[in-house]
Amino acid sequence: MADQPLIHARGLVKRFGDFTAVAGIDLDVAPGEAFGFLGPNGAGKSSTMRMIGCVSTPTQGELRILGMDPVRDGTRIRARLGVCPQLDNLDPDLNVRENLTTYARYFGLSRAESRKRADELLEFVQLADRAEGKVEPLSGGMKRRLTIARAMVNDPDLVLLDEPTTGLDPQARHLVWERLFRLKQRGTTLVLTTHYMDEAEQLCDRLVVMDAGKIVAEGSPRSLIQTYSTAEVVELRFADGLDANADYAAKLDGIGERIDPLPDRILLYADDGDDAVSEVHRRGLAPASVLVRRSTLEDVFLQLTGRTLVD
After folding, report:
1. Residue 309: its pLDDT value, please?
2. pTM
3. What are the residue boundaries of the structural domains of the chain, listed by start?
4. Which GO terms describe its cellular component (predicted)?
5. What are phi and psi of 258, to 5 degrees?
6. Does CATH number 3.40.50.300 belong to domain 7-219?
7. CA dist., res. 45 & res. 294, Å (int)
8. pLDDT over 70 at 254, yes or no
């Protein structure tokens, strides 16, 4: 499998009745890669992940996981997957170590090997001192790290992570990121969905942006920013109130490559933010505040999928 993609999809479709959740996508995920799915709610990310995880059958198209057909070989594939669901489903009746050793037994590991593997993983996720404690008193970040450890208990070829840091505070998020980065350094293949653009930039070697069941962009975080945004973004706030932003946007026309007026500020996309700010002042405009920042994946995401909230 070293020179073969761990995930290979061509024309992959998933329908629920008359609704098409995934509308014919192509993708490959290479061994050792950290691959991300981005997209608004209803874009098809979860449906795609469920097909990859062999818990949902494709309606149409070709899908191979670890070189196998998930329809015929679902049990064999699942034995080599690690899954970290969006919501922690740890067993509160078991202590921290037992949550790992019990799960390991499902994969045929002996009691001794299960305990050895559990202790190694608890050390890895920095929970060794909590091994004999109950799950319930753990913080959200600790539970998330324990869930990630459980996903690794069978030494999987491929780990699926559904929004791995949703609901965590910044400190806990960064610790989870650090552990996932360590997994990537070990050569573990990661596939994740996330709503955090900074998380995708931190963790993903490559990602796709999905919208309405289709892939609308694919590449590394840096290449997507270079393709779909500018090097810098200028955030301008004017003191005249929210209703004046449309008028100011008209006066800024021609500065930079694109202008995006928002209710509370105006975003001006330019390759040189300082030059753009100088031009703003040359036109006699006096914003109350100016911020020049680099473009991010969030700018790309909103450019590709829009700002309209999807329920």
Report:
1. 47
2. 0.88
3. 7-219, 230-294
4. plasma membrane
5. -160, 145
6. yes
7. 27
8. yes
